[in-house]
Amino acid sequence: MHVFLDTQWPGSYCDTKRSCCYPKTGKPAADFSIHGLWPNYKDGSYPSNCDPDSVFDKSQISELLSSLQKSWPTLSCPSNDGISFWTHEWEKHGTCSESELDQREYFEAALKLKEKASILQALINAGIKPNDEFYHIEDVKNAIKEGVGFTPGIECNVDSSHNQQLYQVYLCVDTSGSEFIECPVFPRSKCGSRIQFPKF
Ligand code: AMP
Protein backbone atom coordinates (compact mmCIF):
# COMPACT_ATOMS: atom_id res chain seq x y z
CA MET A 1 0.00 0.00 0.00
CA HIS A 2 1.00 3.62 -0.55
CA VAL A 3 -0.75 6.95 -0.19
CA PHE A 4 -1.47 9.55 -2.87
CA LEU A 5 -1.17 13.20 -2.00
CA ASP A 6 -3.49 14.74 -4.55
CA THR A 7 -3.02 18.45 -5.11
CA GLN A 8 -5.02 20.64 -7.41
CA TRP A 9 -4.63 23.90 -9.30
CA PRO A 10 -7.67 26.01 -8.30
CA GLY A 11 -7.51 27.91 -11.60
CA SER A 12 -8.24 24.66 -13.45
CA TYR A 13 -11.00 23.54 -11.07
CA CYS A 14 -12.70 26.87 -11.69
CA ASP A 15 -12.00 27.15 -15.42
CA THR A 16 -14.55 24.59 -16.60
CA LYS A 17 -18.12 24.66 -17.83
CA ARG A 18 -19.24 23.86 -14.27
CA SER A 19 -17.21 26.75 -12.76
CA CYS A 20 -16.64 27.04 -8.98
CA CYS A 21 -17.56 29.01 -5.88
CA TYR A 22 -14.95 30.64 -3.67
CA PRO A 23 -15.12 29.65 -0.01
CA LYS A 24 -16.76 31.95 2.55
CA THR A 25 -13.25 33.09 3.57
CA GLY A 26 -12.61 34.53 0.09
CA LYS A 27 -10.62 33.74 -3.02
CA PRO A 28 -8.01 31.07 -2.28
CA ALA A 29 -4.29 31.70 -2.81
CA ALA A 30 -2.92 31.24 -6.32
CA ASP A 31 -1.14 28.05 -5.28
CA PHE A 32 -1.66 24.31 -5.58
CA SER A 33 -4.10 23.24 -2.90
CA ILE A 34 -4.86 19.90 -1.32
CA HIS A 35 -7.62 17.67 -2.63
CA GLY A 36 -6.84 14.72 -0.41
CA LEU A 37 -4.49 12.15 1.04
CA TRP A 38 -5.64 8.79 -0.26
CA PRO A 39 -4.48 5.33 0.79
CA ASN A 40 -4.15 3.17 -2.33
CA TYR A 41 -3.37 -0.44 -3.23
CA LYS A 42 -0.61 -1.36 -5.68
CA ASP A 43 -3.18 -2.59 -8.21
CA GLY A 44 -4.65 0.93 -8.43
CA SER A 45 -7.77 0.23 -6.39
CA TYR A 46 -8.34 1.86 -3.02
CA PRO A 47 -10.21 1.24 0.21
CA SER A 48 -12.91 3.71 1.18
CA ASN A 49 -15.12 4.54 4.15
CA CYS A 50 -13.15 2.20 6.39
CA ASP A 51 -14.61 3.21 9.74
CA PRO A 52 -18.26 4.26 9.83
CA ASP A 53 -17.87 5.01 13.55
CA SER A 54 -15.22 7.66 12.91
CA VAL A 55 -17.37 10.62 11.95
CA PHE A 56 -15.67 13.94 11.26
CA ASP A 57 -15.27 15.99 14.42
CA LYS A 58 -14.69 19.67 13.82
CA SER A 59 -13.25 20.24 17.29
CA GLN A 60 -10.23 18.05 16.42
CA ILE A 61 -9.07 20.42 13.69
CA SER A 62 -9.77 23.73 15.41
CA GLU A 63 -6.05 24.55 15.64
CA LEU A 64 -5.56 23.69 11.97
CA LEU A 65 -8.50 25.70 10.71
CA SER A 66 -6.62 28.65 9.25
CA SER A 67 -4.05 26.36 7.58
CA LEU A 68 -6.85 24.24 6.13
CA GLN A 69 -8.66 27.30 4.83
CA LYS A 70 -5.43 28.43 3.17
CA SER A 71 -4.11 25.13 1.84
CA TRP A 72 -7.21 22.89 1.51
CA PRO A 73 -9.89 25.29 0.24
CA THR A 74 -13.28 24.14 -0.93
CA LEU A 75 -14.33 25.29 -4.40
CA SER A 76 -17.68 23.56 -4.68
CA CYS A 77 -20.94 25.46 -4.99
CA PRO A 78 -22.74 26.97 -3.24
CA SER A 79 -20.00 28.86 -1.39
CA ASN A 80 -19.31 27.20 1.96
CA ASP A 81 -16.80 26.97 4.81
CA GLY A 82 -15.04 23.77 3.67
CA ILE A 83 -16.30 21.51 6.44
CA SER A 84 -18.25 19.30 4.04
CA PHE A 85 -15.19 18.82 1.77
CA TRP A 86 -12.95 17.93 4.73
CA THR A 87 -15.65 15.66 6.18
CA HIS A 88 -15.87 13.81 2.85
CA GLU A 89 -12.09 13.40 2.59
CA TRP A 90 -11.70 12.19 6.19
CA GLU A 91 -14.61 9.76 6.13
CA LYS A 92 -13.95 8.35 2.64
CA HIS A 93 -10.12 8.25 2.64
CA GLY A 94 -8.70 9.33 5.99
CA THR A 95 -10.35 6.49 7.88
CA CYS A 96 -8.44 4.04 5.65
CA SER A 97 -4.90 5.04 6.57
CA GLU A 98 -2.86 1.91 7.31
CA SER A 99 -0.86 3.62 10.04
CA GLU A 100 -4.17 4.64 11.60
CA LEU A 101 -3.57 8.37 11.67
CA ASP A 102 -6.23 10.01 13.79
CA GLN A 103 -8.20 12.86 12.30
CA ARG A 104 -5.86 15.59 13.44
CA GLU A 105 -2.79 13.64 12.33
CA TYR A 106 -4.37 13.01 8.92
CA PHE A 107 -4.97 16.69 8.20
CA GLU A 108 -1.61 17.67 9.66
CA ALA A 109 0.20 15.10 7.50
CA ALA A 110 -1.44 16.45 4.34
CA LEU A 111 -0.63 20.06 5.23
CA LYS A 112 3.03 19.22 5.91
CA LEU A 113 3.40 17.25 2.69
CA LYS A 114 1.87 20.03 0.63
CA GLU A 115 4.34 22.54 2.10
CA LYS A 116 7.24 20.16 1.55
CA ALA A 117 6.31 19.57 -2.09
CA SER A 118 6.34 23.26 -3.17
CA ILE A 119 4.91 22.27 -6.53
CA LEU A 120 4.27 25.79 -7.81
CA GLN A 121 7.83 26.85 -6.96
CA ALA A 122 9.22 23.81 -8.79
CA LEU A 123 7.25 24.79 -11.89
CA ILE A 124 8.19 28.47 -11.70
CA ASN A 125 11.86 27.52 -11.31
CA ALA A 126 11.53 25.75 -14.66
CA GLY A 127 9.83 28.73 -16.31
CA ILE A 128 6.36 27.12 -16.14
CA LYS A 129 3.92 29.75 -14.88
CA PRO A 130 0.15 30.06 -14.45
CA ASN A 131 -0.22 32.51 -17.32
CA ASP A 132 -2.67 30.76 -19.69
CA GLU A 133 0.23 29.49 -21.82
CA PHE A 134 0.57 25.90 -23.04
CA TYR A 135 3.41 23.67 -21.86
CA HIS A 136 4.64 20.21 -22.82
CA ILE A 137 3.41 17.68 -20.30
CA GLU A 138 6.88 16.11 -20.15
CA ASP A 139 8.35 19.50 -19.18
CA VAL A 140 5.75 19.85 -16.42
CA LYS A 141 6.52 16.36 -15.08
CA ASN A 142 10.27 16.91 -15.25
CA ALA A 143 10.05 20.26 -13.46
CA ILE A 144 8.14 18.70 -10.56
CA LYS A 145 10.46 15.69 -10.49
CA GLU A 146 13.42 18.06 -10.35
CA GLY A 147 11.93 20.10 -7.49
CA VAL A 148 10.32 17.38 -5.36
CA GLY A 149 12.68 14.55 -6.18
CA PHE A 150 9.93 12.11 -7.22
CA THR A 151 7.93 11.53 -10.38
CA PRO A 152 4.44 13.06 -10.24
CA GLY A 153 1.25 11.85 -11.84
CA ILE A 154 -0.62 14.57 -13.74
CA GLU A 155 -4.37 14.75 -14.31
CA CYS A 156 -5.93 17.18 -16.76
CA ASN A 157 -9.40 18.56 -17.21
CA VAL A 158 -10.86 20.65 -20.02
CA ASP A 159 -12.02 24.25 -20.13
CA SER A 160 -15.09 25.42 -22.01
CA SER A 161 -12.99 25.79 -25.20
CA HIS A 162 -11.92 22.12 -24.86
CA ASN A 163 -8.31 22.99 -23.96
CA GLN A 164 -6.57 20.38 -21.81
CA GLN A 165 -5.31 22.03 -18.65
CA LEU A 166 -3.13 21.12 -15.67
CA TYR A 167 -5.68 20.12 -13.03
CA GLN A 168 -4.22 17.74 -10.42
CA VAL A 169 -0.72 16.68 -9.42
CA TYR A 170 -0.32 13.38 -7.56
CA LEU A 171 2.69 12.45 -5.49
CA CYS A 172 3.16 9.19 -3.62
CA VAL A 173 3.82 9.00 0.07
CA ASP A 174 4.75 6.13 2.38
CA THR A 175 2.01 4.64 4.53
CA SER A 176 3.07 6.66 7.55
CA GLY A 177 2.12 9.76 5.56
CA SER A 178 5.47 11.49 6.04
CA GLU A 179 7.91 10.80 3.16
CA PHE A 180 7.50 11.04 -0.58
CA ILE A 181 8.29 7.83 -2.49
CA GLU A 182 8.25 6.80 -6.15
CA CYS A 183 4.72 5.80 -7.18
CA PRO A 184 4.07 2.10 -7.77
CA VAL A 185 1.08 3.07 -10.00
CA PHE A 186 -0.36 6.27 -11.38
CA PRO A 187 -3.97 7.31 -11.74
CA ARG A 188 -5.17 7.62 -15.36
CA SER A 189 -3.95 10.92 -16.74
CA LYS A 190 -6.23 12.12 -19.58
CA CYS A 191 -3.69 14.74 -20.66
CA GLY A 192 -2.67 15.67 -24.17
CA SER A 193 0.99 16.37 -24.98
CA ARG A 194 0.50 20.13 -24.54
CA ILE A 195 -1.49 21.45 -21.61
CA GLN A 196 -2.58 24.89 -20.55
CA PHE A 197 -1.65 26.34 -17.14
CA PRO A 198 -4.50 28.79 -16.46
CA LYS A 199 -4.25 32.00 -14.51
CA PHE A 200 -6.00 32.14 -11.16
P1 AMP B 1 -12.81 11.98 -3.91
O1 AMP B 1 -14.20 11.43 -3.61
O2 AMP B 1 -11.99 12.26 -2.69
O3 AMP B 1 -12.09 11.13 -4.95
O4 AMP B 1 -12.97 13.42 -4.56
C1 AMP B 1 -13.87 13.69 -5.55
C2 AMP B 1 -14.86 14.65 -5.02
O5 AMP B 1 -14.22 15.79 -4.49
C3 AMP B 1 -15.80 15.16 -6.07
O6 AMP B 1 -17.09 15.20 -5.53
C4 AMP B 1 -15.27 16.55 -6.36
O7 AMP B 1 -16.27 17.37 -6.86
C5 AMP B 1 -14.81 16.97 -5.01
N1 AMP B 1 -13.81 18.04 -5.04
C6 AMP B 1 -12.64 18.05 -5.69
N2 AMP B 1 -11.98 19.20 -5.47
C7 AMP B 1 -12.75 19.93 -4.64
C8 AMP B 1 -12.62 21.21 -4.04
N3 AMP B 1 -11.54 21.98 -4.22
N4 AMP B 1 -13.63 21.64 -3.26
C9 AMP B 1 -14.72 20.88 -3.04
N5 AMP B 1 -14.91 19.67 -3.58
C10 AMP B 1 -13.93 19.20 -4.37
Brief summary of the model shown:
With 200 residues, the protein is α+β, with helices and mostly antiparallel strands. The protein has helices at residues 10-14, 65-71, 83-92, 103-117, 119-125, 137-148, and strands spanning 2-8, 33-40, 134-136, 153-158, 164-173, 180-181, 194-196.
How would you explain this protein's 3D organization?
The chain has 200 residues and is of the alpha+beta class. The protein is built from six helices and seven strands, in the order E-H-E-H-H-H-H-E-H-E-E-E-E. It has one domain (2-196): Ribonuclease T2-like (Ribonuclease Rh, Chain A, Alpha-Beta Complex), CATH 3.90.730. Helix content is 28%, strand content 20%. Strands 1, 2, 4, 5 and 6 form a five-stranded antiparallel sheet that branches. It has a two-stranded antiparallel ribbon with strand order 3-7. It is globular and about 45 Å long. The relative contact order is 0.23. The model has no long low-confidence stretch (mean pLDDT 96). Residues 8, 13, 35-36, 74-76, 85, 89, 92-93 line the site of adenosine monophosphate.
Structural class: alpha+beta
For the record, the CATH class is: Alpha Beta
Q: Which H/E pattern describes the elements?
A: EHEHHHHEHEEEE
Q: What overall geometry do the principal axes of the alpha carbons give?
A: globular
User: Could you say which small molecules are bound to this protein?
Assistant: adenosine monophosphate
InterPro entries: Ribonuclease_T2_eukaryotic, RNase_T2-like, RNase_T2-like_sf, RNase_T2_His_AS_1, RNase_T2_His_AS_2
Active site: 35, 89, 93
GO molecular function: hydrolase activity; ribonuclease T2 activity; RNA binding
Family: Belongs to the RNase T2 family.
